[in-house]
C-alpha cells in the first residue's frame, strides 16, 4: 500500500479511549558512541473506560531495534508478541502488569530531528507530536498520562550535563568493567503525570545562566537557561522575558509554576520554534538567543513571545492537555492568545495587535482559501505533523479571543479558572473548553462552536443607508467552499464598531453616550440601526473583532478620515491598506501611472508622517506597503512579475515624492547610542523604513549613507537593515558589504541565516541563480532547518517574482530542494512544500511549470510530503 492512501487516514470520528493506561514509566537511557540503549519499564493497567475489554496490548515504535521484552520479569518468547508496521502487539496480557523492553537506537543518524538526535555535539529530544515512539515502545498518544522517572547515562567528559523533566533526585559514577571509564548518570523524577509528547532529555556540555523566581505563594523556583558556551552572553533577554511571563501568568490567570526548577536548552537543529516539555523546554536557538550585536529588534520581540508561549503551556497544554491531536488548537490557539496578550501588555498594544492581524491576514487567510484549508479542529489527517498550521495556531487564537470578547475579561477569567480546576491532570477537548465559557456566562455558544469545525475565511459584506436620521447597517455573511466542505453554515461573528462624524469624532450610539458597540451577526443577513444626527463613516471590525474579510464600499474620503482620525489602531491600519490596495489595483488593472496614484495618496501619507513622532512604530506600520504576495492574492490570475513591476514603481514613486520627509526621518530618528527599549525600537523601525524608500528611489548619496550606516551600525537591526537595502536595490557597495558581513559573522549561525535570507529576498528572476549558487556555499547545510528556511524558504514564501521566474527555473530549483530535503527531514520538506499552495491561482504557463516540477517530486515522496503535494496537486 502506497503512503498517503486513504488507509493511512486518522479520523476524529474514530476516537476510542486507550486500551491500557500507563500510571508509571521508568526509563534508562544509556548514551554510547554511535548508539543508545533505552530500557523502558512500563506499569500497565487495563483502562476501565474501555468496556470492550481488549486483550492485546498495542504499542507504537519506529526505527527501534528490539533487543529484549519481558512481562513481570519473565522474558517473553517470540510467540507472545508481534512487531509489524510500527506496532508491537503483545498477546493476551493480564489486567495489570509490568512490561520491560530494551531497544537500541541510533541518534547520530537521525536527521529527521524527531525522537533522540544529536545537534552540534549534544544530544536532545523532540517528541511532539509522535517522536517518542522513536525512543521506545509506548502508547504514543496524548491521552495516556504517565509519571516518568528517567535515568540518563553518558560519558562525563563530553556530556557533563544530563537533564530530563522534573527534579533531579540522584546521580553517581558508573563503575563498569568494559573499559569505558568516566561515565556518570543522573536520575530525574517528574511528579506530574504527562503524555509522552512532553518527555525530554538533554546530554551535553553547555553553559548555564542561573536565576530564581519567587512565586506568588512564596516558593523559590530555580531558572536555568542553557546554551553552547560561546552563546552564554545571549541568554539575558530570554531570562528577563521568562520572569516577566511567570509574573504575568500569576497576575492575569492566577497560574503559578509548579516544579522547583524550570530549564530551557537552546539547540541549533530544530524543526519548529520551541517545545514546551515539562520543566525542560527545548528551543530553537533562533527563538531564545538574543544580543544587540547579532539579533534584530524583530527577533528580540520573537524571543520574548516564544519564551512566554512555551512557559504558558505549562498550564495550557501540560497540566491540562489534549485528548487527541485533533484538539491541538485547545492548547495552541489558547496559548497563542495568551502570548499575544502578554506581548500587548509588555509593549504597545495597538502595534502588537496590528502585527498579529497582519500576520494572520497575510498567511492564515491564504491557507484558509487554498487547497490546504482545514478547520481549527480538523476532522482527519494523514500526518499530524502537517497540521501544525497557521489555522490551528493563529486562527485558533482568534477563536479564543472572540470568546474573551463575548464574555468580557472577568467572566473569561472565571471560565479559565473553572477550566484549569476541573480538568487539571486530564486530556480534554475543545468542546470542554467552550463548555466552561458557557457555564460561567450562562450563554449558549453552540452556534459559536462552528468556528472550530468549519474551514474557510468568512466574508462579511456591509451595506448602509442613512434616511431621516436613521443609520441602518446591513451585514451579511458567506463562507466560500473549501476542500471537502462544500456547504457552509452561518457563524457567530462579533463585529465591533463605531460611527464617526465627518471630522472623525465617534458619535454617541445610545442614550448612555457609548461610542463603541459590538453587534453579533449570527444569521446570513441582519440589519442594525442607529439614530444619528449625520451620515457617519463606519469604523468596522474594530480591533479586528473577528477573523473575517470585511467588504464595504468605502470611498476615498472615508478611508482618509479613518486613517487620520480613528482611535482604533487596527482600523487606521486597515484604512491605509485599503488605500494602498486600491492604488495598486489601478496600476495593475487599469495601467494608471504610479506617480499619479501616489499624488492621490500624498496628503494622507504626509498626515501620517507629520504625526510620526507620537508613535514611530505605528507610523512605520501605516507607511509599509502590503507585500507582493498579498497584492498578488487580490488579482487573478496571479502574475508575480506584473505585481512586482507595479509595487516597485509605486514604492519608487513614494520614495521620490516624499524624499525630503524620508531624509528628515532618517536623520532625526538616529540615536546617539544603542538602546533596547520599545521607544528606541520604534524609532529604528521607522528610520530603516525611511532609508529603504530612499534606497528604492536611488536617492542622491543614499548608497554612501547606507554604507556608512552598515559600517557604523550600533546593532544588528541597523547592520542587516542597511545591508538588505543595499543588496535588494543593487546599490554601489552591495557586494563588498555582503563579503564583509560574511567575513565578520561566519561563526554566528543565526547571523549567517540572515545573510542567506537577504540574498534570497532580492526580487526578480536573477535571484534564482544566486540561490542556486548559495546552495553550494560551504556554509549552506541541508540538515540545518534554520538555514534551509533562510535560503529556500525566503525564496519560496517571500519572493514571488523570483520563485515564479518566467523560465521555470525557480520551480525546478524548488523541486530539487524538496527532493533533497525529503530524504533528510520529511517534516521540513512538507512544510516547504506548502509554498506551492497558490499553484492553481498562477498564470497558466506558470501553473503548468510548477505542476510539472511537483509531479516529479511526488514520486517516491515521504508520507509527510506526499500528503501536502496531493492536496496541492488535487490528487
Ligand atoms: N508545541 C510547540 C509549540 O509550542 C510546537 C512544536 C510542535 C514544536 C511540534 C516541535 C514539534 O508551539
Ligand atoms: Zn505552542
Short description:
The protein is an alpha+beta fold. Helices cover 41% and strands 20% of the residues.
Question: Can you describe this structure?
Answer:
The chain is of the alpha+beta class and 875 residues long. Helices cover 41% and strands 20% of the residues. The protein has an eight-stranded mixed beta sheet with strand order 6-5-9-3-2-12-15-14, with no helix packed on it. The longest helix has 34 residues, at 390-423. It is globular, with a radius of gyration of 28 Å. The mean pLDDT is 97. Zinc ion binds next to helix 3. Zinc ion is lined by residues 309, 313, 332, 335.
Query: For the report, how would you describe the main beta sheet?
Result: 8 strands, mixed
Q: Mean of the pLDDT scores?
A: 97
Q: Give the names of the bound compounds.
A: phenylalanine, zinc ion
Structural class: alpha+beta
Features:
875 residues, alpha+beta, 26 helices, 20% strand, binds phenylalanine
Describe the secondary structure blueprint for this structure.
Elements: E1 10-11, E2 20-31, E3 36-46, E4 57-60, E5 65-71, E6 74-75, E7 81-84, E8 87-90, E9 96-105, E10 115-119, E11 122-126, E12 147-155, E13 161-164, E14 167-173, E15 183-189, E16 201-204, E17 207-214, E18 220-227, H1 236-253, E19 261-267, E20 274-275, E21 280-284, H2 297-312, E22 321-322, H3 328-346, H4 349-369, E23 380-381, H5 390-423, E24 427-428, H6 430-441, H7 450-453, E25 459-467, E26 470-478, E27 493-500, E28 517-521, E29 525-531, E30 537-540, E31 549-551, H8 556-565, H9 569-590, H10 594-610, H11 616-622, H12 628-632, H13 640-657, H14 659-668, H15 678-696, H16 702-711, H17 716-728, H18 734-745, H19 749-760, H20 766-775, H21 785-798, H22 800-803, H23 809-824, H24 826-833, H25 844-858, H26 863-873
Parallel strand pairs: 2-12, 18-19, 19-21, 22-24, 25-31
Antiparallel strand pairs: 1-23, 2-3, 3-9, 4-8, 5-6, 5-9, 7-8, 10-11, 11-16, 12-15, 13-16, 14-15, 17-18, 20-21, 25-26, 26-29, 27-28, 27-30
Helix pairs in contact: 1-2, 2-3, 3-4, 3-5, 4-5, 5-6, 8-9, 9-10, 10-13, 11-15, 13-15, 14-15, 15-17, 16-17, 17-19, 18-19, 19-21, 23-24, 23-25, 24-26, 25-26
